Amino acid sequence: MTNRLYEKAYEAANACVQCGYCLPACPTYASMGKESASPRGRIHLVKMAAEGKIDVLRDLKTPIDLCLGCRACEAVCPLNVRYGEILEAAREEIHRRQSERPAPGDRVMRMLLRHVFPHPGRLRRLGDLGRLLQVSGLLRVARSTRFNRMLPERLSWFAKALPDIPPPRERLRFGRVYPAKGERKARVALFAGCVMDAVMFRIHRATVSLLTAVGAEVAVPAGQCCCGALHLHQGMADEARELAKRNIEAFERCEADWIVSNAGGCGAAIKEYDRLFADDPEWFDRAHRLAEKSRDVSEILLELGPLPYVNGPETVVTYQDSCHLLNVQRVGRAPRALLEQAPGVRLKEMEGADRCCGSGGIYNLLHFSESMAILDEKMERVRETGAQVVISGNPGCILQLQIGIERAGASRHMRSVHLAEFLAERCGF
Amino acid sequence: MEMEKRAAWLEELFDIFPKERVLTDLADRHAYSFDASLGEYLPEAVVQPQSKEQIQRLVRLANRHRVPLYPRGSASSLSGGPLPVYGGIVVDMSAYPKRLTIDKENMLAIATPSVITAELHRKAEEAGLFYPPDPSSSSVSTLGGNLMENSSGPKGLKYGTTKDYVIGLEVVTPTGEIIRTGGKTVKNVTGYDLTRLLVGSEGTLGIVTEAILRLIPKPRARRTVMAAFPRLEDSGCALTRILGAQILPSAMEIMDEYCIRAVEEYEPSGLPLDAEAILIIEVDGHPAAVEEEAAQCEAICREHGAALVRAAATAEEQAQIWKARRLISPAIARLGPTKISEDATVPRGQIPEMMKRLRRIREKYRLNLVVFGHAGDGNLHPNILTDRRNAEEMARVEKAIEEIFAAAIELGGTLSGEHGIGLMKKPFMEMELGKEGVDMMRKIKEAWDPNNIMNPGKIFPDRNEAHR
Q1: Strand-pair partners of B270
Q2: Closest residue in B to A39 (Cα–Cα)
Q3: Which residues of A are less than 8 Å from B140 in CB distance?
């Protein structure tokens, strides 16, 4: 029983020699200042739980819950310890034990993850509802009245930071192919995702415009769905596997040269699909083939570019790495190169751009105060650059950074934007 | 009885510290039960002092209740130095306020013990100065930890070790006095040199709260040469010849054949697989001088049969050469999940002989034993890759380690060049120092710490575990 964790994680955890090289890279070690919030501390605790020396729910759960999952530790580990795998195994075991006695909050979360996120149609309807609230002014009324004070603090920040949801007709249509402009250099399949497709689809529009402009034919395969990363982060590995299978099937049918994602987290999840099928050789191979073809939009734009930039106003921008884009997909150079190529754009690096902003999937919802401690520190670094635009490559980060801008009271002269949207602006799309 | 006693001192901790600075959850305690060695001991509490007054009150409490204190920095120790072997209280000094002042005029740094070593490197260089001690863990290790273990890294030959750079300390003694030793002057013969006694005392004689460190002018240029030798002996001859040519390299690193193979298999970069040793030589100083010295080093290596010589002038090329050295850790990790890293040190001239003996030990005990290290100062790092769950192999590992120590001492060397004695090497202390030598050290410990509350269970062999 206990030894499910032993089987799944011990080998990987035992590879850690506790040298501590991960400590300077860990945002929660920096903000919480103790070893149970450090990568090697967490790895050690997983080992202790696997050996039965501490209890999974009473002792291990909190330190694991408080991990952002940014995986910066993996990128600096001199021994290449597979932290992501250890973390997932721990979360799965916590989830399994908890299923016996779920807390009310967990129930709501799981209901959403099981019955809403896997269905693009349901998500889109929720997105439309959000738009209705926004355009009808209901949200504004709610924000300004007593009603807002009834909302938990975290939700009111989210409501403030959420970008305007465009009308539904602007959504990409599943099954459609957007032809390349000029010579066709490649066929790519766009991964639409869940939140991006439901709410932040303006980024998809921008992505398609950019890709077709550099000569890519963009297919949006039907049958695709949420990547499953959120499920995996909550320890729901079975659900994640089901979603992965649906995506693998949908993208295999599309026969593209590359699978392109514009969300660092989703791209990373796809790149690691094979890990979900360690015990299933057939699906493992299919997952692996898909993973090999998976690219971030910035990589493709840089390879097929240059983009048709137009002259724009002098703008100082700074780039915040999406953790999973950088630490899992190892993409950090391409987005910066694209920004540097844009006329009038001055990229000013912030200190610690590669450190997590505290978004962490839905970490900011679940652990609001811990997340805000990291975010407020991040915003100091952003402020030092004097940037007018903070750019990132993942929807969660963009939302989080916008919350940071709102909290700093800087929304008049600063905004946070997805790389694709910003590049589209600079191309005059 | 035991329970009551525990509750009493635990309660008193909250009189000294705010509650968020006292960690008693089981998970937190486990998270402070280890360092980078193999040991694992559960403390009863962890505290994070924020002032020397808090430390003073803590030490007095420990004396009253006879509770052991285990100070630690980033716990990157390879010798078990900070492990709470008798439970008690871990004193997490990595959370101590970080203060660092560079005094450019007097070429000094004044630092609290929690400052990360690499941060001192950066700040000193910004002022055109240089702090040479550079243990490989310098990006995470604290100055406090470095000082207490006297760990130094690759530059010992030319620049000396950590203790040569510490000229003053502020310490809370094991009986709770706050004292200052040394001062801000390079010369100081006023009384016993307690500074040197404290540096390398492995946290058994007190808790450092401030250190005054010497800095030197930053070398203006640096050149790196790498040479691969088909025969180990030739690399030793080349080393001797280089020093004989009045060149004092800032670093001379050696990797044995097993390291070379592991690194090349891990990430191919054209290292010759049939080489028995690779030397990485770095010279620093005046640009004109290093240019000439690097060329001389190259020539000497070639004369001594080096099959491959690479020289680097730009920072990029240098990084490329050092990469081979840096890749040793991940490369050899594939040989086994448990890594035992030793630091037996011999007089430099005995390096080829020591390497030969290590090879014999490897064969005799059928172990994955690889050797790399700081050839310039005789500080070798034999690493054994094994699996602690394999009891039979671990027994062979233990025997092999014993033989490594014996070989080092026989060749006129020492048990430890920079990792410290800590836990793992204490049974061998008498082998090197004799009973009288160890007793003299014990007397010092007893005079400073009559109740044996400061990092007890370290350095000194337990009465029944002395080897020979």
Answers
A1: none
A2: B31
A3: 19-21, 23-24
* Tokens (6 digits) for A265: 């987290």
A57 contacts chain B (CB < 8 A)? no
Min mean pLDDT across B268-282, B283-297, B432-446 is at: B268-282
Distances (CA, A) of B92 to A353, B22, B178: 29, 10, 19
A351 touches B: beta carbon within 8 Å = no
Q: Supply the ipTM of this predicted assembly.
A: 0.93
pLDDT of B37-94, one tens digit each?
989 999 999 999 999 999 999 999 999 999 999 999 999 999 999 999 999 999 999 9
Measured at the CA of A27, the angle between CA A51 and CA B125, to 5 degrees, comes to 120
> Nearest CA to CA, how far is A287 from chain B (Å)?
26
Residue B49 preceded by cis peptide, ω within 30: no
Residue partners of B259: CB distance under 8 A and separation at least 6: B278, B328, B331, B332, B370, B371, B372
Tokens 């020289």 map to which residue?
A: B311
Helices (H) and strands (E) in chain A, counts: 26, 9
Q: Does the CA dihedral B314-B322-B251-B161 come out positive or negative?
A: positive
Is B2 a residue whose pLDDT tops 70?
Answer: no
Please state, in angstroms and rounded to a whole number, the distance separating the CA atoms of residues B110 and A161.
Answer: 45
What is the rounded CA–CA span in Å between residue B8 and residue B11? 5
Task: State whether residue A51 sits within 8 Å of chain B by CB.
Answer: no
**What pLDDT shows up at residue B54?**
98
CA-to-CA dists, residue B360 to A227, B231, B335, B363, B367, angstroms: 54, 16, 19, 5, 10
DSSP state of B40: B
Report pLDDT digits (tens) over A257-276: 999 999 999 999 999 999 99
Reported as a single tens digit per residue, the pLDDT across A66-99 is 999 999 999 999 888 999 999 999 999 999 998 8
Instruction: Classify each residue of B331-357 as buried b or exposed e, where b means 16 or more C-beta atoms within 10 Å of its C-beta.
Output: bbbebbbbbbbbbbbbebebbbbbbeb
Give the confidence band of B376 by pLDDT, cuts at 50, 70, 90: confident
Give 3-state DSSP helix, strand, coil % of chain B, rounded to 5.
40, 20, 40
On whether the CB atoms of residues B312 and B227 are closer than 8 A, the answer is: no
**B30/A62 CB distance under 8 A:** no
Q: Give yes or no for residue B258 having a pLDDT over 50.
A: yes
Q: What's residue B349's pLDDT?
A: 87
Q: What's the token pair of residue B390?
A: 């394999």
Asked if B174 and B103 count as a contact pair (C-beta separation under 8 A), the reply is no
8 Å CB contact of B31 and A80: no
Q: Do A20 and B23 touch (CB under 8 A)?
A: no
Both tokens of residue A178?
Answer: 């957007």
**B139–A33 CB contact, under 8 Å:** no
| Residue B209 reports pLDDT greater than 80 | yes
Output the pTM of the full model.
0.91
pLDDT digits (tens, 9 = 90+) for B324-354: 888 888 889 888 888 899 998 999 889 889 9
Q: CB-based contacts of A345: which residues, under 8 Å, 6+ apart?
A: A312, A315, A317, A339, A426
Indicate if the pLDDT at residue B400 is higher than 70.
Answer: yes
Tokens of B398: 């233990």
Q: The tokens 């060149």 sit on which residue?
A: B247
Nearest of B46, B35, B280 to residue B140 by alpha carbon: B35
A-chain residues near B142 (CB < 8 A): none
Q: Burial-class residue B25 by CB neighbours within 10 Å (0-12, 13-18, 19+).
A: middle
CA neighbor of A213 nearest in space, from A338, A306, A342: A306
